[in-house]
Description:
Blueprint (H helix, E strand, L loop, with lengths): L1 H8 L4 E4 L4 E5 L10 E12 L7 E9 L5 E7 L3 E9 L4 E3 L3 E3 L3 E5 L5 E7 L8 E8 L3 E10 L8
Parallel strand pairs: 1-12, 3-12
Antiparallel strand pairs: 2-3, 3-4, 4-9, 4-10, 5-8, 5-11, 6-7, 6-10, 11-12
Bound molecules: copper (II) ion.
The site of copper (II) ion has 4 residues, from strand 10.
Amino acid sequence: MAGFRRAALAGAAVATALAAGSIVVACGAGSPSTAATVKLSVEGSYIPLPAGDGMAAGYLTVRNDGSGGDRLLRVTSPGAGSVTLHHSTDTSMTEVESLPVPARGTLELARGGNHLMIMGWQKPPAVGDHLELDLTFEHAGTIAVQVPVKPLTYRPGS
Ligand SMILES: [Cu+2]
């Protein structure tokens, strides 16, 4: 909730949608015609059903159709105690402070790469459930996404 309040104080908007969130903001002090904008949408989110210890990964794509870059700073959930940002390599993974969303590009959280680590579920997740994730960005504010829990072996597009 602190994140929401901070975002609201900063004048950012909060968007909620069932399958995808989208938000547009202008930033920078320039005139409207020259200011960089970020135009974010969240696509393809899912959580493979955790194997049993309650620790789950979260995957999604943040698309930026704007001319300015942004940064994913924090993810929280009303249904989970902790959500952290992880960077993976072939042999290890480390928690990171933030992840960049390039201008006119995407931030991909996908198997084998960057991902969310979700712990402390309030109730054991089941396939078909949705978990709200509140993604807070440096410029775009907070976007809430309802993320579906999928079978452990689910692959996007399959
Ligand atoms: Cu991880």
